[in-house]
UniProtKB/TrEMBL annotation:
Regions annotated as coiled coil: 292-323
Protein name: ADP-ribosylation factor interacting protein 2a
Organism: Myripristis murdjan (pinecone soldierfish)
A biological process from GO: intracellular protein transport
Molecular function in Gene Ontology: phosphatidylinositol-4-phosphate binding; protein domain specific binding
Gene Ontology cellular component annotations, sorted alphabetically: cytosol; Golgi membrane; trans-Golgi network membrane
PROSITE patterns linked: AH
Length: 375
């Protein structure tokens, strides 16, 4: 029926005038009835034909769809592919797939996602640390300006602050001793070198001047003896300078570094203490109580840090004072005995002083670079 309708529709001649109007068309009652029946019952796809040559094509261009369907089924069977013809077959195929899953393969996208998550976690951690640092810096800066302008309170340990001030003054004075002792060493070293050169000149002239041989010889021996004693005194002064340098630039400096950490911890402690006091004076709603609890936690952390560093500073100051007295007692006695023996011309006492304080003299010319180093 559909074939006859389509053929009728395809072979109908529609007259068109010069104005493009179709004009009055004769009504075909049979065609209208056939179209109504197709609309009600639907077309029969098994009987549908495909017109390959257009509306005016020959009859040989019409291909029945039933033949195409059979050919497609044959091709599917020849390739070994079976298509389920019902919903139950499809469900059985899905169940077989569930019971026999294929091997799992980790795609490269999974590892990429894992690395992205790790990098994201690191970035979040860095962001949190920067945020905490910024908050801490803001609170400490606010507390520092409040103390400087007299609007904020600070925690003060009077006894410890006095000891710290004494240490700073002592370090300044010992640095001055170190500077002067270093200058004395440099000048005395130049004097010893001059005495040695003068002694060599006297010895050379005693050989070339027979009439003044004895006089030049006496002076040459005196300058050599002074040069020898000068090297011994120079060794004692170098030992004194080295010990003072260790005391000032290592022992005292280490204690002052701990004091600096203690002062920073004190500032942080006062900053969080002031923050907690301000929150405690405000409203007591649920959100405020949460902030007060967090502030109390931060306050306790910085309080423990402050007390720990204060204890460390107290212990280091005590040991530093004991070490300073012990070191300076030995070094001042060495300096006094060596200077006295040298200017008294007592070579034996000078040598005993060096042995007593375990001062080892460097051999002559040890400070000069070797000929390999000069190349």
């Amino acid at each position: 029926m559909a074939d006859s309708i389509m053929s009728k529709a395809a072979t109908m001649e529609i007259p068109i005038n010069s104005n493009g109007d179709t004009g009055s068309l004769p009504e075909d009652d049979s065609l209208e009835q056939d179209l109504q029946q197709v609309m009600v019952s639907g077309p029969n796809l098994n009987e549908t034909s495909i017109v390959s040559g257009g509306y005016g094509g020959p009859a040989g261009g019409i291909i029945p769809t039933s033949s195409i369907k059979g050919t497609a089924n044959l091709r599917m069977k020849s390739r070994g592919v079976s298509i389920p013809h019902s919903q139950s077959a499809a469900s059985r195929l899905a169940k077989q797939t569930d019971h026999h899953p294929g091997p799992m393969h980790h795609s490269p996208s999974n590892s990429g996602l894992a690395s992205e998550e790790v990098s994201r976690g690191v970035a979040v951690e860095k962001l949190d640390s920067v945020k905490k640092w910024g908050i801490n810096t803001y609170k400490c800066t606010k507390q520092m300006f409040s103390e400087r302008f007299g609007r904020g309170s600070r925690t003060v340990d009077l006894e410890l602050e006095a000891q710290i001030e004494v240490l700073r003054e002592t370090k300044y004075k010992y640095e001055n001793i170190l500077r002067l002792a270093t200058a004395l060493t440099s000048h005395f070293h130049n004097m010893v070198q001059t005495q040695q050169a003068l002694g060599d000149t006297f010895a050379d002239l005693s050989q070339k001047s027979p009439e003044l041989q004895d006089e030049f010889g006496y002076n040459a021996e005196t300058q050599k003896l002074l040069c020898k004693n000068g090297e011994a005194l120079l060794g004692a002064i170098n030992f004194f300078v080295s010990s003072i340098n260790t005391l000032v630039n290592k022992t005292m400096e280490d204690t002052l570094m701990t004091i600096k950490l203690y002062e920073n911890a004190r500032l942080e402690f006062d900053a969080y203490r002031s923050d907690l006091e301000e929150l405690s004076l405000g409203p007591r709603d649920a959100a405020a109580m949460v902030r007060i609890e967090m502030a109390q936690h931060e306050y306790q952390i910085h309080r423990d840090k402050y007390e720990r560093l204060r204890s460390d500073v107290t212990i280091k100051l005590k040991f530093l004072e004991e070490n300073k007295v012990k070191v300076m007692h030995k070094q001042l006695l060495l300096f006094h005995n060596a200077i006295s023996a040298y200017f008294a011309g007592n070579q034996q006492q000078l040598e005993q002083t060096l042995i007593q304080f375990n001062v080892k003299l460097k051999p002559p010319g040890s400070d000069k670079p070797s000929w390999l180093e000069e190349q």
